Amino acid sequence: MKFLFAVTIFLKIVWAEDFISEFEYGQMLYKDPRGVSCASCHGKVGDGSYIASYVDKDGKKHDFYAPDIRKLSLAEFKQAVSAGGKLMPKYYLTNKESEAIYKYIQVVNNYQKENTEREEESVESNSTLDDNLSLEDNDTEDNKTDNSIISKIFKVDQEIQ
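^ thats the sequence. predicted structure below, dont judge the formating
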């Protein structure tokens, strides 16, 4: 009986699902792949950011920016990570690690893009609703309050959809 129990536990461990999702793995690596965060230079979503500046001997200021990595292909991304750059260190990531980081960046940016589009649609819809409501007689304070409530309900309804 003990043997059967031990075999069952062993099989569950061997064929168990991953403890973290591929998204979580990519997120963890993006935040700290080898002691240096990708996000510290490339921003939270890979859109690039200011790194540093210096003034040369002629008094001219030079700024360094990390590039936007959101639109790189997987092959370009892997090449950049493995080769390094002027300021970027060379990382020794496995294919699985590089792909997880790349997919994380893609998922985060697709989610951000969808939310931005929804917000823009919501603002346009609310603007149209507000314009239509303002055409009505809005002289009383009660009508102004009703219009505000209707706008809020409309916005929540749009977010649910």
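Residues 24-160 form one domain.
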